[in-house]
Amino acid sequence: MIDLDSPRVMGVINTTPDSFSDGGRYLATGAALVHARKLIDEGADLIDIGGESTRPGARPVPVEEELERTIPVIEAVRRHSDIPVSIDTSKPEVMRAAAAAGASLINDVWALRRPGALEAAVESGLPVCLMHMQGEPGSMQDNPSYDDVVAEVETFLLQRAQAAMDAGIARDKIILDPGFGFGKTLDQNLELFRALPRLRSHGFPLLVGISRKSMIGAITGRDVDQRLAGSLAFAVLAAQRGADVIRVHDVAETRDALAIVRAVEETAQPLQE
Question: What is the mean pLDDT of residues 174-196?
């Protein structure tokens, strides 16, 4: 794992035809590798590669198709760079193949609840990111409902972290993700975002992914290709509230925004005599 002493930037590569922001752009391995090189040149600390869209209403992808979309890209990136690579998947077969291809992290929107996923993660020896999602991608935004969204997400994440530790995954190999936009209304997302310090207080690193999401569109009225300013605002606020990994589409701009925050917030050092 990378050093998480300060917030790190995770660049996104969707090798899918139907992801909400960049679906179809990086479906071919060559195009995905070109984009990976761009993200690396822009200063990404790690890259997240996914072969199955989890946007609201997305259709499931067969295992073989997901393998064909992701494994060649991981192998190509690994030949080009030693940057940590995350595999965004919930399928145990893809987890195993990605680990063998050189992946450094398993990022699972199902929090290792799919049959065989927990066992595959343990066998891989890789760190894991466990995300909260109410329902499943096909219907998660139909009618999200909570009595207390913060408490319920917090309880779920801690339970999944405990399940991972009970299965043999070390505590220091677990990252938690509140799952913004995954079965949550705008108000629920905002309430959860305000509670990031509470979620971080349990000692697990937090991953936050809000880049270009519909909640930004709901606030600003901007289409998906016009949400950079909103994405940067959320990235900065997330870092200030304790997020350790910021998952984004726009790496260079996010790094610049975080660099400004660090420069302002750093404690002034006394002058040397």
Answer: 97
